[in-house]
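Methods, example record. To illustrate the input and output format used throughout this study, we show the complete record for Valine--tRNA ligase. The sequence lines were provided to the predictor; the line carrying structure tokens was produced by it.
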Amino acid sequence: MIDKNYQPADLEGRMSLVWEDARAFSAGRPDRRDADPFTIVIPPPNVTGSLHMGHALNNTLQDILCRFERMRGRDVLWQPGTDHAGIATQMVVERQLMERQQPGRREMGREKFLARVWQWKDESGGTIINQLKRLGASCDWGRERFTMDEGLSKAVVKVFVELHRAGLIYKDKRLVNWDPKLLTAISDLEVQQIEVKGNLWYLRYPIEGKTFNPEDPTSFIVVATTRPETMLGDSAVAVHPDDERYQHLVGKRVILPLVGREIPIVADTYSDPEKGTGAVKITPAHDFNDFEVGRRHGLPQISILDREGCIALVDNEDYLRGLPEGSEEFAREFHGVERFAARKKILERLETFGFLERVEPNTHMVPHGDRSGVVIEPYLTDQWYVDAKTLAKPAIAAVKSGATTFVPRNWEKTYFEWMENIQPWCISRQLWWGHQIPAWYGPDGKVFVAETEEEAVSHAIAYYVEQEVITAEQGRAMALDRNKRAGFITRDEDVLDTWFSSALWPFSTLGWPDDTPEVKRYYPTNVLVTGFDIIFFWVARMMMMGLHFMKEVPFSTVYIHALVRDEKGAKMSKSKGNVIDPLALIDEHGADALRFTLAAMAAQGRDIKLSTQRVDGYRKFANKLWNASRFAEMNGCTVPVGFDPASAKETLNRWIAHEAAAATREVTEALEAYRFNDAANAIYRFVWDVYCDWYVELAKPTLLGEDSPAKAETRAMVAWARDEILKLLHPFMPFITEALWESTAKRDGLLTLSPWPHRTDVPTVAEIAALSAASFGDPLVPPVLVAFNAASFKDEAAEAEIGWVVDLVTAIRSVRAEMNIPPATLMPLALVGASAETKERAPRWSDVIKRLARLSDISFADTAPEGAAQLVVRGEVAALPLKGVVDLAAERTRLAKEIAKADADIERVDKKLGNEKFVANAPEELVEEEKEKREAALARKAKFQDALSRLQGVG
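The corresponding predicted structure is encoded as:
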């Protein structure tokens, strides 16, 4: 029996256990040995993470696809796992040590600290996995992987070594995003651009050979900068080659204020004549753009900061080279001063000597570490790099050829822009938690890259014996005795960027580099579902690595979903206080309601504006299905063995079969095209509008009447249509559908493993005729077993008849609502100039139409009665007399006022949207809100205009 009340919390945990006990989501099930595989790899969430709304959307969409394809008979592998999240995890454990007043990682040493991190991971990591299960994610949980488990670590080392041997991994000194608090390079994704109210300082740089005079503009050139402290590392001033103001100065030199270094004036298109003074200081070691200018002009790279963001000038050969006598004192004065304190001192000195021309307020974006919160420093340092440009070429060609396609297609442009302008990929991080780089250094700094220390030692011994640094006998002794080679070679302390290991995710999780059956069966994967923000960081790198090592693209389709915003369209953030917790929504409304909300709003290319009211609305939707299923159960609705809906004789029952087929086609086609919102809305309409509001309502007289073949058929049909609903709805709302299937279907097997309502072979005319010839419910007539094609069945005649009833009642209800006619007021209806079909069907449905439309009588007429509103229903006129029922004059006045009010609202919004300043300066969500107000006002106006037009011909 179905419980009286729908309680998501009661059934969701129970259904999870049912699936788990049955190993329902396991790939490679014996019954699917010959089925086509369907593979999705989960974007591995950080092991430190907890479920946020982005995860909820991403995993809901993946789960819909997996459940859909599983029901279509495919061997589905949804590969789960988590990412070790280098910085995030190391910070968690270091913070824990600090809070407990325990020794820090430096005091503990690398080995003990890493043991502590593994302990934390085993005890507390992976919380998000259980949260994904609460969401209903149907991953093959028995195959869960971790980016630092033994198999994946083996793959990472092999890839690093092979790419190094091929010259595609190398060490170089370049600028990186440096976090002065965490003391490591970080990726662009870990950099948060924050708007800061600062200043633009205009500095006078004296021209060489001229006597500097603040009052003489010909004696200096003015540059504008937001970072005056980095001027200590300037190696040029750049002007645009077409800027006539400075053409006479190109090739000359200026004297760097305070420092005394002579630096050239170069012509470079990087300088924008429209910004500042048109002249810019070039500091190659402290700005990414300046670094490229410096390379173009062969400028020296002078780093003036240390790892902690302090001025470092003493013993800094790059800084001291070529400086005049007395520079050492200045270097000692500023050495060790924190960068922002140094800024203040430098500005004071510049002003004192007349080098500061003016200061202007300037609001600009400043990069901050998303975890440390400090200002990120472009920092010149030795790091390991991947030759991404070379690896990107096949990845670009694969998308251009269509081997991999993006949905929506417009994201391919973003992919190409990034890939065609790709820079070397910095893969080293100054952390302890992560895959330690498999590189060892000899006593002279020679690098030996190998898969194991033993292999590296072997290479080093061979090299140094050949170089006669050690003897062959010493080499043999080192090879045999670890103690004798202590200190001979030292391993690189750095670890790899977490994106390096996750770039291998589609094949390393399947057991590569071993030649496993899983690699052969499940690679390449079918579709990747991910957010646009990691197209470059993850998608592109998986493409590069997959093509290089597997010689095939890692996935044929990349579905890019949008952001989940708050109900006003604002991006969710803790600082705004508008973050919606998906777990709280699950607690309150159930996972099914949240999942359906996200799917129903996941229109391609459009951000989701999530409101808790919408989630509550879909909770009500689930409740309606629950109550409809209880109604069916209480009225003895079951599907007899061998029943085929194509055998139904009753027009109403053939109509629901027709509508079910239409819904099946619509949902199937939408899911195949990744139009999740269209699929969700199609099943919603079928459940709420067609099945609950119309079919069950129209079937009630039969179900509540005397026993008859029609009643037996209707009972079977109500149950059959309910089962089709459970199948179609299951990918979206797995918990409630599985629970209802368990309670009502009364057959062996889980819904999640049941076939999707579709078959390729269409029933023949002879089969359908044989079924139709059988007297339904006659125990003497054996049932003819024919599988119903739920996607291909059509009965246009049934649709025409029942559709007419539905449309007629709907039109009458609309007029009653528009005219504010009370439900208790019964009205007559005249069918004007009715066709033969209408004259035939109207008497059959007269009682139903009168009950549902609140009519006193239905008659036929050649012309519309005086004072009647005329409704056109499927090409024919139905007249609803309003005289004496509605105060026509008052109603016209009311509708005119409503139209005028809507016009005023539209005009007010148009003024706002026509104001360029408002559109340019207002928050994006506010502009979007105004557009929505306009659309709502237009819809109101159209509704009132329709109502008014109905009254125009009424006396």
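Annotations derived from this record:
The longest strand covers residues 191-206.
DSSP finds 32 helices and 29 strands in the chain.
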